[in-house]
Amino acid sequence: MEQLLRRTWAEIDLDALAYNFHVLQDRVGKEVKVLGVVKADAYGHGARVLSRELEALGAGYLAVSNLDEAREIRKAGVKLPILILGYTPPENTALLMENNVTQAVVSEDAARAYSAAAAAAGGTLKIHIKADTGMSRLGFLCDGEHFDDTVETVLRVCDLPGLEAEGIFTHFAVSDEPDKADCVAFTKEQFGRFTRLIDALAARGRTFALRHCGNSGATVNYYEEMKLDMVRPGIILYGCSEGAEKLGLKPVMTLKTTISSVKTLDAGCTVSYGRTYKVEQPTRVGVMPIGYADGFFRTLSNRCEVMTEDGPVPQCGRICMDMSMVDLTNAPNVEVGSEVEIFGKRNSVNRLADIAGTISYELTCAVNKRVPRIFLKGGKVVETELRMYL
């Protein structure tokens, strides 16, 4: 593993994950379940290992995007309930039940297809009803003229054979923007639609064991009124985003590389493709074995800094597929073999995301499978994972 470590790797701090989990659990109270969102390989952090850690920490549920992600977690030995937030073809209903996986239901047609498949397989599929309160993506519409029809439709769905309606949930569109009055108003409007639906169903005798709407933004900004029975922290669980900073959460991933070559360029030399960077004086330039194929976005070229033992140094020239360059003129102690932090504890992924014009989720998810994940606990390596060989 040492050979892999000396190129480019991602350190996953399991102590930071535990810290973040306990902060969030304490925030909502012990009576509220914390669902760990581990879709997209736990936002690039390694879903199999992190799911096991979350189970040990006391998480009440996990959530993924699809059945393949759920099966991967089950193969890792995780017993926690798993909710699929996205689409599963009804012909895979038997696999859902076989793996004890809960399916989000977003329409009556889908529910009837799952019901028929579950009955044919002689089992019961656990479902969570998805209410569309304003995201305008998936779920039963809850606004205005759709409300009464949705109440009747959800009641029919919940009575279908072969289905166990354990939960009901919705998703917020702008709960992570509490500094904008219109976003606050819209989030509260979404929550009002959701609770109105829950109340109307309860009045007809239909209640749910799990009502949840608290995504990362709501868990940070509206947790008192919107925590309900369960919250679904996603990116904040991994210590990324402004919301995570607001709560003092710790980054779980640190993306690192090394210096593989150092040379001094004469004044007037240009660096990398397109000759977009020109040195004006003798300049000490280092090459790092990390590029956009590893997840170091090309759009960051000539615009960002990385962290060395001598402090931040500017990236220079276009980022290539497998390597990139840095100006080491003001970092005399950085030599071939020196470690460099692309983002993590000393160089915030949030700042890089701002420069790239995106969100931190995209940067962590983009860390390629050829980049080894090194899992640390108490400062020691407890597990390693190189996904391209699995």
Short description:
33% of the residues lie in helices and 25% in strands.
What does this entry look like structurally?
With 390 residues, this protein is α/β, with parallel strands linked by helices. It is 33% helix and 25% strand. The chain has 14 helices and 21 strands. It has helices at 2-5, 14-28, 39-43, 47-57, 67-75, 93-98, 108-121, 147-158, 181-203, 216-221, 223-226, 242-247, 349-356, 360-365; strands at 8-13, 33-37, 61-64, 82-84, 101-105, 125-132, 140-141, 163-169, 210-214, 230-231, 253-258, 261-265, 270-271, 277-278, 283-288, 305-308, 311-316, 324-327, 339-343, 373-377, 380-385. The strands form 4 sheets. The chain has an 8-stranded parallel β-barrel with strand order 2-3-4-5-6-8-9-10, surrounded by 6 helices. Strands 19-11-1-20-21 form a 5-stranded mixed sheet. Helix 9 (181-203) links the parallel strand 8 and strand 9 (210-214).
